[in-house]
Amino acid sequence: MGLRGSRTELIGEARWQDRPLGLRELRALMAKSVHVPHLAESVRYALWGRGGVEPEVLATGAFGFSLEDMLKR
Length: 73
Known about the structure:
By secondary structure, this protein is of the alpha/beta class. It has one domain. The protein has three helices and four strands, in the order E-E-H-E-H-E-H. The protein has helices spanning 23-32, 55-59, 67-71; strands spanning 2-4, 7-15, 39-49, 63-65. It has a four-stranded mixed sheet. Strand 1 and strand 2 form a beta hairpin. The longest helix has 10 residues, at 23-32. The radius of gyration is 12 Å and the shape is globular. It starts with a strand and ends with a helix. The mean pLDDT is 93.
């Protein structure tokens, strides 16, 4: 979770799997977000995966990061 003041602005999840994360994982994360208190109206979503994310995830406006992205300095 990423906070701005008392509001949750970013919700993310990391998965250690080879295949790229897709819309199924993003939708599951969005469904879980209903349990997060103090959601901002424009909450953003992020997925971190060893195999990265599918282009459809990025097309929704969500953030997506691969193992390479995580290891960059």
